Amino acid sequence: MFMKRLLTILVALPIFIGALLLLPRALWALFLLPVLGIASWEWAGLARYTPAMRIVYTAIALASALALFYVAPLYLESSRVDLTFFAVSSVFWFAVAPWWLGTRWAARDAYTLGVAGWIALVPMWLALVRLQAAPWALLGFLGIVWIADTAAYLAGKQWGRHKLAPRISPGKTWEGAFGAALAVALYYAVLLVTIAPDRRFFEGGWGLLVFLTVLALSIEGDLFESLLKRQAGVKDSGNLLPGHGGMLDRIDGLTATMPAAALAYYLR
User: Fold this and answer.
1) What are the sequence ranges of the domains in the chain?
2) Cα separation of 81 and 90, whole Å?
3) Do the Cβ atoms of 202 and 196 come closer than 8 Å?
4) Coil, helix or strand for 43?
């Protein structure tokens, strides 16, 4: 399983980074659009929508994302639009999602699940698109999520004994979470020494706070999707990516982290 995960990353990561650094923003937005479309389709599946409802939901997510990026700035200041939706998403992940996880709420209402999916996915897509303007900051944020996910997997496999949230995701352990925290701390130290003098955002207490927050949110996003999968009675959100499952299984940490990271970056 780990080798499949590694091979998938080795193929996908250079393509992603190349597109991030080389594509103009309009094409970068289109490059990321299939990610949003597939994730929305999978979310609708976890919400147990009918096939017709899944198509409609995916279309709404894509159309609204395109409208926010291409149409809204024609009438409103784009930065104000972006910050509004990043803030809405952040409120969801800081206030609503912890309660949802703590109570293990089994939402059945199609509208509630649809709104939650939109808040999780569309602001994430918008944050990834907008942060292309600061590609090294975006890669820095993404690195936190990727490193935490990999370190948690390896540490949990090697030393995992104490369950982190057994009623939500029995495979996740406190040892994995501590391994992720240690790896992210080392990553922060490396960035601080190598690029922080030219990237003030990563310096000092603010940078450390952002890193710790992104780490915590990435774990929360992972747990939130695990809860939805558990309640839907499935192991993975899909089978698109070898060793990773579906698109949501790959980006669950990004749904919770990217809007908050973008908000922190633009408010700095």
Assistant:
1) 2-267
2) 14
3) yes
4) helix
